Amino acid sequence: MLVAKELDVKNHESYHNHERVVYFEHEAAGLKAIISVHNTNLGPSLGGCRMYPYETQEQALTDVLRLSRGMTYKSALAGLPLGGGKSVILADPRKDKTQALFEAMGEAVDYMGGSYITAEDVGTAEENMLHIAKHTKYVTGLPKETLQQRVQNPVGGNPSPYTAYGVFCGLKAAVKYRLKKDSVAGLKVGVQGLGSVGYDLCRFLDEQGATLFVSDINDAVLEKAKAEFKNVHIVGLDDIYDLPVDVYAPCALGATVNDMTINRLKCSVIAGAANNQLHQKKHDQILHDKGILYAPDYVINSGGVMCVGYEFFQLTDNPFAYELNEENLKAHVSEIENVTMKIFDYADKHGLPAGEAADRLAEEIFLAPDKMKSVANS
Ligand code: NAD
Prior knowledge:
With 378 residues, this protein is an alpha/beta fold. It has helices at 57-77, 99-111, 126-132, 144-150, 160-179, 196-207, 219-228, 282-290, 297-300, 303-315, 326-334, 336-350, 354-366, 372-377, and strands at 2-6, 20-26, 31-39, 45-46, 49-52, 83-90, 116-117, 188-192, 211-215, 232-234, 247-250, 269-270, 293-294.
């Protein structure tokens, strides 16, 4: 049986006016999970379900509080009528995954009564969402074949191509703003990590004539890039930070802009897909002081949440005045370029680093939802 316990997190160091946080246990299914709803001013909260072998419940709570808060900011600037939420399952994805566990997680998601919509995240996969979907309709990121059974011409599916396209749009905005160039042609771009997002980003850059400097721990993907792209140089894992490039695009790990790397960077722009690129808040200010323009990660990598959001709306209610299809989704993702420009303008006007400017603009939107259209969609 699923047991739910509302958590009082008001005194937690990561508390930030979270609306509701619930701890769940289902002994028979081996489930221990927390769902955190940060803010629903703009709509139901959406955020992935992370599975991770946390050492303590406290660590899991800190993670879910921070991640759910981040989703509120991301969806606000993504122009989505969605709030911020997240869930964590306290278990090891390499050995603890069972159908029963995810079905119990489905019951937990459903218990939130639609205030939280779940999706895939680190440690969970499409097939796990299918098991969650047995007990709730508040789940997105389902396999394309399942969507095809429910709607004609489903939109959504694998979000990575949309994330990559959005990162490219944000990168172009930063190049325009800092280097006064309308194209990436002739620019040198260092891409760290050629996974689902990084590789597609390289393809956009290559098509438009950029020179690529790429690193990855996976040699096979580097060889593939060498064979496919016109102007590509493979660089060492640690050398990526020292390159005299125009743009550094972190697309692998978080926190690569840190005390050890920040003085090595010679780029004018940082624009990549990785989450939490800045190790600490102070690095936002340090980049600003060094004259490196940082395209805030959660803004430019929001193509993925747009994709899963559209999928959910298609299965439930369409909040937009237009049809939910691939073309309109792509147009929505391309808005990342304008939103990123607005953040840079705002940062300059208020003498702020770009990350801080993005947070303030997001707060203006989700704390006063009627402003949403004027900032995100104008
Ligand atoms: P992925 O796992 O497909 O790719 C990551 C790549 O980085 C892999 O090729 C891996 O070999 C490489 N890598 C790992 N360690 C490395 C290192 N030290 N140096 C260089 N390369 C290294 O992941 P992804 O889906 O492409 O996501 C990339 C980043 O973007 C992640 O931080 C992810 O959280 C973030 N992100 C992804 C999406 C999405 O839609 N996939 C959405 C938002 C944010």
